[in-house]
Each structure stands twice: as C-alpha cells, then as structure tokens.
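Item description
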Amino acid sequence: MNLFNYCKKLNILGTDNSINWTILRVMLGVVMLAHGVQKTFGWFGGFGWEGSMGYFTGHVGMPAPAAAFVILVESLGAALLIIGFAGRINAALIGLIMIGAFFVEHKSNGFYMNWFGNQKGEGYEFDLLLWAIAAVLTINGSGRFSVDRWLTARRTSSHGTTNAPRYAKATA
C-alpha cells in the first residue's frame, strides 16, 4: 500500500467542499504564521530562530529538537495550513502546541489577554479559540480551495470514479 492510499484509508486528506472549513483554516493559519515568522525570522518584533530556541531550551526547558519542532509547526505548518495541505495534521499540531503554551505561559496569567499591560503575561482566552478552531479542522479537514481536496479529487478521478472526493457535495 502506497503512502497516498494509506492516508486515504485514514482519511487524513479527506474533506468536504465546505467554505466554512476554508475560512477557519486560512484564519488559523494566518494567525499562527504571524507568530511563527516572529520565532523563525524575527519579523514583527520577534526574537528570530536563535532567540526563540534559547527561550524554549533555557526558560521552558525543552530539548532542542522539540523546540525546533514547535517553531517549524508555527511557521511551516501554518503556511501549509493556509494552502490546505495536510490540514488535519497541521491543525492538530497547532492545537497541541497551544496546549503547551497554555501550561507553560498562559494558565498562570488568568483568562484575559494582557490588553493593557498590567498582567505578568497573556491569559488563555486566545488558546481556547485556537483549540476550538483546530479541533473543527482536525475533524472536518481543509475544506474548499485546499490542496487536500485537489489531491483527493485528482487521485480519485484518475481511478475512474466520478464522485471525488468522498464528500463531494457542497455544504456551504
């Protein structure tokens, strides 16, 4: 069994034609990508790769490979999520990373974000929103206008079937 058929069996790339998942996918990807490029390249006031690695390995105490994985998911994973490639996997990984952020940084600061600078750091209201969006995308897939949908439709139609992919009906 090749990799594509294995992914198809697990429904990793499967999605329906809903614009709802597309909107959630792109917005989650854009928000996470903004944080990812801060950590990866130092853009938008971020610390860049070295500073972020130092924070994760020093302050948080993560092993270097795990720290690099977090940075890559927030940057490369978010970019892949925007285009809808392996949307279920990337959404799940972003959700898991935000669980880590919750326990490491946000939980002790209470519910609210630090809008006025009078808390020690950010609260966890943002985490809750990202978890909900990541859960919906992990369950439903990338939606309309995604690489996942294009790949499954292309692969299915090349094997002589006309109803590609599994959820070909528009739901939005």
